[in-house]
Amino acid sequence: MRETTTDLPTMPIADEFRRLWQGVRLFALISWFHWFKIVGNIIDRREGVIEQHIARLMCRRILAVLDMKVTVEGHEHAKAIEHYAVASNHLSYLDWVLILAEFPNSVSFIAKRAVTLMPVFGSYLRNRGVLIDRRKGQTARSVIRDAAGVSPWPLLIFPEGTRSPDGHLQPFRRAGIRILADAGLKLLPIVLLGTYEALSKEARCIRTGRRLHMIILPAIDPKELGSAEACAELERVINETYTARRAEFE
User: Fold this and answer.
1) By the 8 A CB rule, do 51 and 123 touch?
2) 92 and 195 Cβ atoms separated by less than 8 Å
3) Is-contact 179 85, C-beta < 8 A?
4) Nearest-CA neighbor of 51 among 43, 66, 41, 59?
């Protein structure tokens, strides 16, 4: 009698149920924190310190609910540093969660306005992000240039421009980084690992119980290297570090 298997046909169904369950749990969690965020913004909308703390607590709780094992390396490089911007590789929507949860300082994300439609972070980005709205004729360069001198927090940019489709880093679009370097800001590289394996661009649900890791590397000073060389060095150290360490998380 021929043996039949049902593993392959049931996998998509199992993934959809898992996705639905994750969505329900995360929606309930986020809704609970959202009330605190509303109250926080009534008290402190201008400075946003309360909202930053709530976002950090919420993201840490999200990672705990997803059973993620989170580690951070290089805290010391984010201490006692002023007038800087942060640049990170971009693998997954979980990047936002990991950065808000574990980067030592508050940051302001540079993002397209369309990203404000994203669950969890949409309202946060509307309040605290640096948003590029092409419908209003804005260019990324003009928005970044305007924000570089006035943002109350360090700007955070994803130089690849979008999430990796395959887990490999894409070439950096250096125009935005160059503007930050020309503004005299130090460039602080961070490397994220494990987020692609947990939630790739094509994934239907989050793979729980994964290990996520953030590496904060030494800052690069454009005043010492020159803007062009600083941008090239930023791309080099992020690529080399990611390539050297990725196998630990596959």
Assistant:
1) no
2) yes
3) no
4) 41
Closest CA to 81 of 104, 51, 108: 104
Q: What is the pLDDT of residues 108-161, one digit of tens each?
A: 888 887 777 766 566 677 777 788 876 765 677 888 888 887 888 899 999 998
For 67, phi then psi, to 5°, come to 60, 35
Q: What is the pLDDT of residues 228-246, one digit of tens each?
A: 999 999 999 999 999 999 9
3-state secondary structure string across 149-178:
CCCCCCEEECCCCCCCCCCCCCCCCHHHHH
The amino acid occupying position 211 is R
| pTM (two decimals) | 0.85
Cβ neighbours of residue 184 closer than 8 Å, sequence gap 6 or more:
83, 222, 223
Q: In the chain, what is the greatest distance between 2 CA atoms, to the nearest angstrom?
A: 75
Query: What is the C-alpha separation between 18 and 15, in angstroms, rounded?
Result: 5
- DSSP 8-state assignment for residue 220: B
Give the angle subtended at the CA of 119 by the CAs of 115 and 120, to the nearest 5°. 105
Q: Please, is 69 exposed, middle or buried when counting C-beta atoms within 10 Å of its C-beta (0-12, 13-18, 19+)?
A: exposed
Going through 33-170 in order, the beta strands assigned E by DSSP cover 69-73, 84-88, 108-112, 130-132, 155-157
How many angstroms separate the CA atoms of 65 and 100, rounded?
Answer: 16
User: Cβ(176)–Cβ(146) under 8 Å?
Assistant: no
Q: Which amino acid is at 195?
A: T
CA distance 222 to 224: 5
Give the CA distances from residue 52 to residues 80, 108, 180, in Å, rounded to whole numbers and listed in that order: 20, 10, 23
